[in-house]
Amino acid sequence: MEEALTLAHHAVKVVVVHRREELRASKVMRDRALAEPKIHFLWNTVITEYVGGDVLEAVRIQKRPHRGGEGRAGRGVFMAIGHKPNTDFLQGVLALNPQGYIVTHDFVETSMEGVFAAGDVHDPNTARR
Prior knowledge:
Number of helices: 2
Order of helices and strands: HEHEEEE
Number of strands: 5
Radius of gyration: 18 Å
Low-confidence stretches: none
Mean pLDDT: 82
């Protein structure tokens, strides 16, 4: 929701395509986003296709459970999936902190020799830059 609120400062309209019927963001962020008049929600919906050549012309969306599709014009897409790193598959292989980020030394070295980490799997601030 942080990203949607930031975009709302710059855009005329922000459409959040959300795959569930409720937000899992913190209460503060959820309340702010729901109160922002520029943010509109499409609940239980997923993007199934990006339409256009070199320039995005539209996205094809689909309600869940999947009941046909519909197109929507759009000038841009910003993908955000939250702040939980996709590291579950590394459980028991590499050292992870309690939030699930890979523990690194000298910024990239992991607990296993020869294995390095980069990006938001080890640095929670990467997603906010």
